[in-house]
Amino acid sequence: MVGLVLVSHSATLAAGLVELITQLAPDVTVRTAAGTEDGRIGTSPDAVEVALRAADGGDGVVVIPDLGSAVLSVRVALEDLDADRYVLVDAPFVEGAVSAAVTAGTGADLAEVVGAAREARDIPKF
Amino acid sequence: MAVDAELARAWATGFAAAVAAHKDELTKLDQAIGDGDHGSNLDRGMQAALAKLAGDTAADVLKGVGRTLISTVGGASGPLYGTVFREAAKALGDAPDDAAFAAALRAGLDGVRRLGGAVEGDKTMVDAWVPALDALDGALGEGLGPAAAKAAAAARAGAEATIPLQARKGRASYLGPRSVGHQDPGATSTALLFEALAAVA
User: Fold this and answer.
1) Which of A20, A42, A105, A120 has CB atoms 3.0–4.6 Å from A95's, for a disulfide?
2) Which pTM does this prediction carry?
């Protein structure tokens, strides 16, 4: 099953999203890389790498960032890992993660989960 | 001039001191158009880097600075400045001359542009880095010292030139037109970086 990594500047924000996702897609492996190692608001490439390895069940991992520098931290981490099966997706943090998790929970492959996360950009709230 | 570990250490030390001295100014700039953490983040990162300056070559020293910044900064400047130093270190080789050093800095800039996707005019550190390296390259024939002085002046001018720009990258881009009229913090710290180089080269 495809895994999910949520990268956020805020540990509490990421934890809240994990709570939400666990309700909707309890079988999906979700890990977070959120806040700095000393507990501040920010992101850490080292934490992203740890989360990627933990979420990687062999079918790939979709990574959802919250804001800009989360993207930078992920890109730095991915440069060192050199793995096609880790995909950073430009998707809204909540909606993208939810779409990805629900899709992954159906056993979809990496490409489908990536697609679902991307499409979340265009899903209106109302 | 030998671009050796001593020069790299002196540069990193000078930059750390400049960032510490200008921490409040950088924070104020970042409060105006960012999330207010550029000063404290970069200060934290460079202070941590000061403890990791061991190395036999300039490449070793700069690689250490890059790695430390990536691991400790937490904000955008960690990956961005970290990549500059890491990519420059990768390109440096063991006993670089002035030209190899300038080329390595260019590799650093290319790394930053690839990572963040910024182009000139986006109101970012790139707007100070590009003029700085163009000035450095143009004056290398005069020796690294004079060339670095010209690079520092160009970086400072580049930072000031970000004032009228509208941000197209980073937290400031969320502000849109309200980012106009403020100097970019990343371009400002870039000016400090090149001024620190000029002081030791």
Assistant:
1) A120
2) 0.91
